[in-house]
Amino acid sequence: MKLNFEIRQAVSDDVPHIFNLIKALAESEKLAHQVTGTAKELEQHLFGDRIYAEAIVAECNNLVVGFALFFTNYSTFLTKPGIHLEDLFVLPEYRRRGIGKAMLSHLGKLALARDAGRLEWNVLDSNKSAISFYQSMGAEILPDWRICRITDTTLQALVDRNDNTP
Question: Please, what are the domains in the chain?
Answer without folding.
Answer: 6-141 (3.40.630.30)
